[in-house]
């Protein structure tokens, strides 16, 4: 009896799409040796090679591999649809929609949820995840969430990306700290002030934009703290440790009452917020309605 697993089929298809075990391992967010072992186990189970070496630089599908890839895609597609239909049945019973967001796009998500609740007649339970963009994409690809608000993308062939807003950043600091500043602030001025920056787990996103720009301007900013948690950033800001740079959509009326919020001169920092969801022939009704509302 075959011991083949759906996970191995998914790994095989990802390797075939990437054309490289190294690239596939990065897409799957696993290390290369375990992925290579799973491929060897699959080939041993099948009794034939799926890939062959090409000029010692890459890999290509064998004839058997081409045939098996087509069948593997069909099986995974059918399995995904079964899962989606089962999830929709669960959502009809539990009335649940799982949404992922970065901290930077959270206010946009809240507004969309409010608008969505005004459109529907059912009471929907929302399951909210806050992560960095790349972590959200992996959650989406693994079907742990239905939709995500992100500002970075990765090469997942089964995920749809649609830009929904360009969001320029502003400088935010406790009112008493920056009372000497004018109505706008320059990059040079920002570099001379204590900064608190939110860093993603992989050093990308807005954090990288800010650091790279300051290096381009040959400035040595006073980065007082690099934190990896949005609640820590909020606490440090509230306690007056320094200022930060945030997307303008994140600035609520409450924040404007408590903090100095300044437009940035010749602003180089912006985020393109995108909506991401799994490309499925079959989507849960609640998800389809939510996407349609946002894209109208």
UniProtKB/TrEMBL annotation:
Residues 4-62 form the HTH lysR-type domain. The keyword Ligase does not apply. InterPro entries: HTH-type_LysR_regulators, LysR_HTH_N, LysR_subst-bd, WH-like_DNA-bd_sf, WH_DNA-bd_sf. Keywords: DNA-binding, Transcription, Transcription regulation. It comes from the Bacteria. Coiled coil: none annotated. The keyword Lyase does not apply. GO terms for molecular function: DNA binding. PROSITE patterns: HTH_LYSR. Pfam families: HTH_1, LysR_substrate. Belongs to the LysR transcriptional regulatory family. This is DNA-binding transcriptional regulator, LysR family. The lineage of its organism: Bacteria, Bacillati, Bacillota, Bacilli, Bacillales.
